[in-house]
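Let us practice reading a record.
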Amino acid sequence: MADLATLSQYMRRNGQTMAEQPAMRMKYLGIWNTYNWTDYNEQVCEFAAGLSTLGFKREDKLGIIGNNMPQLYWAQMAAQSLGGTAVPLYQDSIAKELAFVLRHSDAKVIVAEDQEQVDKILSIRDELPNLEHLIYCYDRGMTDYDVDILLSYKAVQTAGQTLNSADAGFIDGEIDKGTSSDIALMCYTSGTTGNPKGVMLSHYNLLSVAEIFIASEGIRADDDFLSYLPMAWVGDTAYGPVISMLIGATCNCPEGPSTVMRDLRELGPTGIIAPPAIWEGMLSNLQLRGADATPLKRWVFSYFTGVARQIEDLKAEGKPVPGGLSFASAIGEYVVYGPIRDQLGLRRARWCYSGGAPMGPDTFRFFRGLKINLKQGYGMTEVGGLVTLQPDDEASSDTVGRPAPGIDVRVVDDGEVQIKCAGVFAGYYQEDAKTAEVMTDDGWYRTGDAGVLNENGHLVIIDRAKDVGKLADGTPYAPQFIELKMKFSPFVSEVVSFGDGHPFISAMVAIDFDTVGKWAEGKGLPYTNYMDLSQKPEVVGLIGDEVRKINQGLPEVSQIKRFLLLSKDLDADDNEITRTRKLRRGFIAEKYGPVIEAFYGGQNEVALSLAVTFEDGTEEHIDSRMTIQDAA
């Protein structure tokens, strides 16, 4: 990293050496607005100086909440330029979740996107003793507030401009004080088993990981990335702003969450990282559009995606591809594969990664068959978001790739995967005991994941070590394997399977409301809401057919024997899943205890009163009666 040690020092370098090169774009009112590196530096330096006038100093914490937008990224960099730490939060968090993170992190200043986020913060102000200033970016709806801690983003920048005019070298001096060991980012874990923990990542951690990824994937200064993932997820920072600082690549912010897919098509990024849920959503949409097409188009889509699937299956088995299939694939490139890549906005993409959770093999092979260079990676917040990568010619649904250069991976006797690298975090904030629990005496990070290194040096993740169990007869049971197979269906949103200590496997299924709703409309089937739709006998039969299809490809012992359709989707607001859509299995097992008892007690229906949580933290209960089905 030469003589540059912090992100802000790289930013300043880019302003000097890449002044006119685009650093960031933001789509607003249908127009892409471009900010070059000169603009980027000016915006950051003005806001940093403004923060300084508010008393923000080294080691202070800056909370950030909102959708991806330049002002929030500039605020993050401004805090780091002053030697402080950025603490991004999930924008869809309810007030109770925000209260814990902001209180625990000792956030002194918070930058919020708009009135919605401001209202959430103000509702918990009494729980935040360290909060001194709340800064909002958008003025809409903010004129009638009379709150002493409220400031506009523009007002802070104006104060910064005044300070910079009086002391032109102030910000440069602050940036020069930065060291590689300064904590740049504090990302909070998902909290699948308890309260989230604040993962402290230094500039050295983030820059080291980014350098590895840049070298491995050949990132260039003219690359374009879509910054659409939650800023609170380490992947957004590690594979966006940090890479941008190092190499000069451009980060592009969509107009909003509802326009992401459209903006993706317009931008055509050169690389993209998305969690499996995004790829599954794309797949469901393609399958649905294929089913709704004219008979001829439906046949063409089905035939050529079938050809692609056959080729990917042969490649996975190490078998040669017959000439006939290769010829059909060449035709498919013009009539199906290329047009689909265009529709998805992936025509220019040299690489695409799935990360954050396992991806089902069927979904993986579907996109590979479309000649999209989709690969699986593996990482976690505590190691800066990167552990393994898949070379282009070794992409596989069975592994998460080889340990990236400079990253050591070992699997200990009990099957746990452990990591040692420059990206290993500085510790959990105010949690020394928990930090010690996840670190070995010889400096390896304990991931808590069960895995193996295969004969080719690729890492295979089986499941979370604590989630792997055994059926009553001793057969090993990994719940994620069953759940991923089920989620290949476009009609399924989430699945929770049970089997540990039981004689067979059962599953709770949450339908995909949009996809099943369109299916119902096509059948002339009326419904009023999610609960009504999910419990329709016709819908139960539809999902039953999907379960049977999945079971046909599974060994007898791994097949789902009983299932039911949930009367509501699993929701992060209800603590059933995390903000990154990981199952909170312990909480689910407790909340849906009567369902588990009914599965294995031979009952055919179960009644539940389920709590539904709203954004302000209030709860309502809905009563439902769900029918349990035996799978053929």
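A brief commentary: The longest strand covers residues 619-630.
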